[in-house]
Amino acid sequence: MPYRTVLLGLISLAVFAAPLGAQVNLVDEPLGALYLSPYPDRYSGIIDGNLMTFGSPFTVYLVAEIDFADIGATEQNASNGLSAWEASVQFPAGLTVLAIQRYPDTSINFGTAEQNTLNYLVGLGSTVPAGGPVVLVEFQVLALRYFPDEQIRLGPVTTTPSVVDAPAWLEAVPASGCVVNEQPTPCL
Asked: Which domains does the chain possess?
C-alpha cells in the first residue's frame, strides 16, 4: 500500500528552542541541543513509513547532543557533560506510549505526567558524556490511526521550568564560563 509512506511522513517531531536566561554566560555560542528523533544517533524530524506502520510499535528517542567543541573547548568532552536535564514530551492523542526507558539507569525523574504530556525533571546520578549524541529516553510507541500534520513535541516542563520556553540541561562541571552572583556555576 504505497499511500502509507506518504501519510506516515506527516508525523513530525518538533523542537521548540528559545533563548536561555537566568545566568550570565560568558560564551556567546549555544552549547548543544536536546531533540526527538526516530534515530538514536542523529536528528531527523520525520518518522516515515520505513520506520513506522500502523498497529506496529516504533521507537522515538529523546537525545542530548552536547559537544564542547561548539564553544572552542573540545578538551572538556573528556571530563564534562550532562548532570541533569528537564523537558516535556507531548504525544498526539492517537499515539499510545507502550514503554519508556530512561538512560542512564541511575537517572531519576521528578516530573509528572499530564494527559498526553510527560514532564521530565531528571537527575542523572552520573555524568552523561559529551562529544556526540546520547540517548536520554527511549519511547516505544504505537499508532492506531492517521495523524495529519500532528507532532510529537519537545518543550519546556509545563510547571516551573528552570529555563522559560525551552528544554534545558545542566553542565556537570562549572568549566564553560557561566556565573551566578559572580561565582562559577555549571551552565544551564
From this structure: 3-174 (2.60.40.680)
